[in-house]
Write a structure and sequence with these properties.
68 residues, elongated
């Protein structure tokens, strides 16, 4: 893997992790305030972020199998 690809993977994972943790924090704060609707929305966004991080994550092996 090229150094630029490693940097992109690191940056992508870091940003995805920050977004997921922010959504979970907002869900927790909404639960503490007993606002169930917003808590479910933030939790759903966090789970969507986890799903997208796993499924859309750039994977060098799948790219190599497909094109190279």
């Amino acid at each position: 893997m090229k150094p630029a690809q490693k940097y992109f993977h690191f940056r992508f994972g870091l940003l995805a992790g920050l977004a997921i943790s922010a959504n979970l924090s907002l869900a927790f704060l909404a639960l503490k305030a007993e606002q169930w609707g917003p808590a479910f929305v933030w939790a759903a966004l966090a789970s969507l972020g986890v799903y997208l991080t796993i499924s859309v994550r750039p994977d060098s092996q799948s790219n190599n199998r497909a094109g190279n």
